[in-house]
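Ticket #4471: structure export looks truncated?
Reporter: QA, pipeline team
Priority: medium

Steps to reproduce: submit the single chain below to the structure queue and open the exported record.
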Amino acid sequence: MSYVLLVELRVKPGNVEAFTEKVLANAAAARSSEPGCRHFDVIVDPQDPTRMMLYEIYDDEQAFQAHQQTPHFKRYLAEAVPLLEHRQRHVWKRLT
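Actual output as written to the record:
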Protein backbone atom coordinates (compact mmCIF):
# COMPACT_ATOMS: atom_id res chain seq x y z
CA MET A 1 0.00 0.00 0.00
CA SER A 2 1.24 3.45 -0.87
CA TYR A 3 1.76 6.37 1.48
CA VAL A 4 -0.37 9.30 0.32
CA LEU A 5 -0.05 12.85 1.53
CA LEU A 6 -2.67 15.52 0.93
CA VAL A 7 -1.57 19.00 1.99
CA GLU A 8 -4.04 21.87 2.12
CA LEU A 9 -2.38 25.25 1.58
CA ARG A 10 -3.41 28.88 1.86
CA VAL A 11 -0.89 31.31 0.36
CA LYS A 12 -0.56 34.74 1.88
CA PRO A 13 -2.05 37.41 -0.41
CA GLY A 14 0.57 38.86 -2.73
CA ASN A 15 2.76 35.74 -2.58
CA VAL A 16 1.02 33.43 -5.06
CA GLU A 17 3.52 33.86 -7.89
CA ALA A 18 6.61 33.41 -5.69
CA PHE A 19 5.10 30.45 -3.85
CA THR A 20 3.96 28.77 -7.08
CA GLU A 21 7.48 28.96 -8.53
CA LYS A 22 8.98 27.35 -5.41
CA VAL A 23 6.37 24.64 -4.92
CA LEU A 24 6.55 23.61 -8.59
CA ALA A 25 10.34 23.34 -8.35
CA ASN A 26 10.03 21.09 -5.30
CA ALA A 27 7.43 18.89 -7.01
CA ALA A 28 9.48 18.57 -10.20
CA ALA A 29 12.62 17.65 -8.25
CA ALA A 30 10.73 15.03 -6.22
CA ARG A 31 9.24 13.46 -9.36
CA SER A 32 12.52 13.38 -11.26
CA SER A 33 15.05 12.46 -8.57
CA GLU A 34 13.29 10.41 -5.89
CA PRO A 35 12.76 6.76 -6.77
CA GLY A 36 10.12 6.36 -4.02
CA CYS A 37 8.01 9.30 -5.21
CA ARG A 38 5.30 7.97 -7.53
CA HIS A 39 3.17 11.09 -7.94
CA PHE A 40 3.35 14.75 -6.96
CA ASP A 41 0.64 17.15 -8.12
CA VAL A 42 0.25 20.82 -7.26
CA ILE A 43 -3.44 21.76 -7.49
CA VAL A 44 -4.94 25.25 -7.39
CA ASP A 45 -8.51 26.41 -6.82
CA PRO A 46 -9.56 28.09 -10.09
CA GLN A 47 -11.75 30.53 -8.14
CA ASP A 48 -9.12 31.46 -5.54
CA PRO A 49 -5.42 31.16 -6.46
CA THR A 50 -4.40 31.50 -2.80
CA ARG A 51 -5.95 28.05 -2.16
CA MET A 52 -3.72 25.19 -3.24
CA MET A 53 -3.30 21.54 -2.50
CA LEU A 54 -0.45 19.04 -2.84
CA TYR A 55 -1.25 15.44 -3.72
CA GLU A 56 1.76 13.19 -3.20
CA ILE A 57 2.13 9.41 -3.46
CA TYR A 58 5.19 7.57 -2.14
CA ASP A 59 6.03 3.86 -2.09
CA ASP A 60 5.88 3.91 1.71
CA GLU A 61 6.46 6.13 4.72
CA GLN A 62 10.24 5.61 4.46
CA ALA A 63 10.20 7.08 0.94
CA PHE A 64 8.37 10.12 2.29
CA GLN A 65 10.90 10.42 5.12
CA ALA A 66 13.68 10.31 2.50
CA HIS A 67 11.88 13.09 0.58
CA GLN A 68 12.01 15.27 3.68
CA GLN A 69 15.82 14.93 3.79
CA THR A 70 16.44 16.13 0.22
CA PRO A 71 17.99 19.53 -0.53
CA HIS A 72 15.00 20.58 -2.65
CA PHE A 73 12.54 19.84 0.18
CA LYS A 74 14.68 21.69 2.72
CA ARG A 75 14.84 24.67 0.33
CA TYR A 76 11.03 24.51 -0.04
CA LEU A 77 10.65 24.60 3.76
CA ALA A 78 13.00 27.55 4.10
CA GLU A 79 11.79 29.63 1.15
CA ALA A 80 8.20 28.65 0.33
CA VAL A 81 6.55 27.73 3.64
CA PRO A 82 7.03 31.26 5.08
CA LEU A 83 4.84 32.50 2.19
CA LEU A 84 1.89 30.51 3.57
CA GLU A 85 -0.71 31.52 6.10
CA HIS A 86 -1.98 27.94 6.48
CA ARG A 87 -0.65 24.43 5.86
CA GLN A 88 -2.39 21.25 6.97
CA ARG A 89 -1.22 17.73 6.18
CA HIS A 90 -3.42 14.66 5.89
CA VAL A 91 -1.91 11.19 5.57
CA TRP A 92 -3.77 8.52 3.61
CA LYS A 93 -3.17 4.95 2.58
CA ARG A 94 -3.74 3.97 -1.06
CA LEU A 95 -5.40 0.56 -1.38
CA THR A 96 -4.88 -0.03 -5.11
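Status: closed, not a bug. The export was complete when the record was re-opened. Leaving a note from the reviewer for reference: The chain has one domain: 2-94.
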